[in-house]
Structures are given as C-alpha cells and as structure tokens.
Write the structure tokens for this entry.
Amino acid sequence: MPAALPIRNRPIRIAVVGLGQIAELMLPPYLAHPDVEIVAACDSNAERLDRWRPAFGGAAMTTSLDELLAMPDVDIVDVLVPTPLHGDVGVRVLEAGHHLQLQKPIARTLEDCDRLLAAATANGALLRVLEDYVFFPPLVRLREIVRSGELGDAVGLHMKVVNTGRGGWDVLPTAYEWQLEQTKDGRGMLVFDHAWHQLAVATWFFGPIRSIVGWIGETEVVPGFALDAPATLAWEHHNGLRATLDITLAVDTYWKSDFYSCDERVEVTCARGSVRCNRISAAGRQEPSLEIYKDGEVRSFHTLADGGDAGFIASTQHMVHVLRGETSEVVMDGASARHVLVALLAGLDSSADGVHLRHLD
Ligand SMILES: NC(=O)c1ccc[n+]([C@@H]2O[C@H](COP(=O)([O-])OP(=O)(O)OC[C@H]3O[C@@H](n4cnc5c(N)ncnc54)[C@H](O)[C@@H]3O)[C@@H](O)[C@H]2O)c1
C-alpha cells in the first residue's frame, strides 16, 4: 500500500532510481529542502552511486531495483531512468506500493503510458510527471499576465528552440547513447524528447489540443547519424488558439548556460499586445527573461528566478505541497501527461505520413 496522504509532521521520504544527467538538476533541490529526506537510491551503474554517496548521508544505496523496492518507509519513488524504461520501471514502483514521480516524457508509447495510469489507479498511488517548464518562474508569470486579461484575449502562441553543440554542461555520454538510439524510430531527441516541454507548456496555457501537424526534417551531425531538425509543429487548441513551434539546429552557436545549452523563446500574442519569455534552458542573448509589449511601450522583468534550475526547484516545492495535502493540483497528473503524449505522437505521425493535419478526436 502506498503511504497514506497527506503526509504531515515528518519529512517526505524519497527514493531515487537513476542517478544520471538529470539527477544533477533533480537532486540538489531535494537535498536543500528541509521537508525532504532522500532515504534510498538505486542506479544499475555503481559509479553513479559513488558520485552521490557523499551527499546522501545515511541513505541506502543499491544497484538492484528489487532491493530498493523492498525497502520499507519510502513514501515516493522518483524515477530518473531513460525514457524507454519509464513504463517497466514505473509500473514496478507502483505495484510495489509506492507513489511515483516520473520524468517527462511520461513514456515512449501510448501503451506504456496507459500501463502506468492503470497501475497507479489499481494501486491507489499518486502518479506525478515532472515537467519543470510549467514551474519556470518567467513562464508562470507569463501565464498569469495572459490570464489577467490586461493584454486582451490571447490570439496566438509562438515558440522557438535553437539547439547547439556549444555551451552549457558536458552531458554524460551515456545519456546521449539512449537518446540517439531513440531517434532511429522517429521519436528523437529534439522533437519527441524536447518538444514535449513546449506542448506541455502550451496545454498548460491554453488547454487541450484538437489538431496538429508536424514537418520534421533531419540534419546529419556525424557521418551516418542525423538529428530530427529542422522541425516545425503547428497546432490548434480546442479554444481555437493557433500555435507554432520551430526547432532549429545551429551546431556551432555558443549559448551561455550552466545546464543544457538550447536557446528557447515563448511568445503569446494577445489582442492589445504581447508577452515574451526570452530564455529557459540557456541564458540566450542576456535579455530580461520576460517582456511585455503594450501600447508602444515595453515592460521588462529583471528579478525573476530564471536560471536553468529554477523550474526544478519550484517543482520540488510543489511536489512537497501535493504530498502534504496543501494543494490538489498534481501538475502534471497522468491524464494531462497522456494528452501531451497523444498530441506529440500525432504531430510525429503527421510528418511521417506526409505532413497532413491530424485531428485528435
Ligand atoms: N526535465 C528535463 O528537462 C529533463 C532533461 C533531461 C532528461 N530528462 C529525462 O530524464 C530521464 C533520464 O535522462 P538522463 O539524461 O538523466 O539519462 P542518463 O542516461 O544520464 O541517466 C539515466 C540513469 O539511469 C540509470 N539506469 C538505467 N536503467 C536503470 C535501471 N533499470 N535501474 C536503475 N538505474 C538505471 C543509468 O545507469 C543512468 O545513470 C529521461 O526520461 C529524460 O527524458 C528530463
């Protein structure tokens, strides 16, 4: 049986599975949070356990998932393994009687996604998908501004990602291995893995998507290996709002970043003006992270927390609120994550079939 919720009057006890690249962003907010205790960690690669052992104090460390799942006194398991393993590892966590937090994308296939949702329901467990972008403070502020109506009705959403090979941290080679493997069946690193963030943000802004079209190209980066860009997705929400996302590969461009090095923009155009987020992962051109244009004037935000880790910190805080029963909004719950996956797969299918509009209903 999963831990009874809400959890009050004691720390939240987390077990982590997978201590690779994203653990570098996920774990520091746990370690810094007074209400969170990392009680156990598992990675099939013992070197990754050694990387974190000094920071984890008395936490149990193991290379065996079975061993971790048999441990008592675990409230929630945070799964940070490669996406192709989300279905199998996530279902095992749920069937072992734990609440589950899973990285985005929820799964590589709808079948795995549905197995996860069914296992969560059958075991009475919480399933939360970690989508840090919907906690990134400039995007949170942007959404508030649009919803306030001060710029009139929203009439369009424009998103852009420029990926590069320069700047930011050195990603673990093992993280690239499985990501590159994924590209082979058309669910690749730049569109399937990364555009997940943008579709999650779009649905969080404007609700479900009703139609989508994808036009996905490829660029050879090393002989015999191509990445899934340039790529464009265009879609319409049920509320009628149209949106576009452009993904470009500019291999030799340098972006300043302490984390991943892609440059990202999100702009919502409203009837009387617009509001634009100028960075997410990388610092981009060092503009203020949020700007409003209205009636011939620009208003800039200079003090929002806008580092590449800011969304992870805020998401951790929210997860604690959920487990403490201080909010009923899971963000993202399984159903919301499933909708993002359905839309993303429809966009990929439309490209594969010759760029035809796909209706989700
Ligand atoms: N939120 C974000 O912005 C963001 C960014 C990057 C990655 N991610 C997601 O995080 C997940 C992991 O990505 P990553 O880049 O950290 O990959 P990674 O390859 O660097 O790390 C995965 C880790 O899991 C371990 N592992 C693999 N199988 C295991 C198993 N069965 N049991 C225990 N450990 C196992 C590996 O040894 C490795 O250390 C993916 O789903 C990815 O999409 C999210």
